[in-house]
Specification:
Blueprint: E1 17-18, E2 23-29, E3 34-40, E4 45-49, E5 54-61, E6 63-68, E7 71-76, E8 80-83, E9 89-93, E10 97-104, H1 108-112
Antiparallel strand pairs: 1-2, 2-3, 3-10, 4-9, 5-8, 5-10, 6-7, 6-9
């Protein structure tokens, strides 16, 4: 579906998706990009993975320790980390963390609920 008009989204009207006991999220997806509010409890580990989407991680509150291509980086309140498409990474919440992720293109497997293609 191609939209021809602006559309207002209100985070407080979007259902919170419980991914695991440690991770919840809200998703807003456009045709070419996607915003995701993520809530990670301290100790939440997102295992090593890679995807075809470029990703920006903006930590609004809390702290994450990421391993990106074998390099460790800590991202805290106000920091933004850019992860290029196809780069392997994992993250661990060092404290309760609220973040905003931008993906381009959208992670269709998150929207449709189907597994990503093997080339992802």
């Amino acid at each position: 579906m191609i939209a021809d008009a602006a559309r207002l989204h209100r985070w407080d009207e979007i259902a919170l998706e419980k991914v695991t006991e440690m991770l919840s999220r809200k998703i807003i997806a456009g045709e070419r990009e996607m915003l995701v509010q993520s809530y990670l409890k301290r100790g939440c580990l997102v295992p090593m993975h890679a995807h075809r989407s470029e990703q920006m991680i903006y930590v609004l509150q809390g702290a994450l320790r990421l391993l990106v291509n074998g390099e460790e980086v800590t991202v805290r309140d106000g920091d933004v980390l850019h992860i290029p498409a196809g780069v392997a990474h994992q993250s661990e919440a060092l404290e309760d963390t609220f973040e905003l992720d931008v993906f381009c293109p959208p992670r269709l497997e998150w929207i449709t609920g189907r597994a990503a293609p093997s080339s992802d």
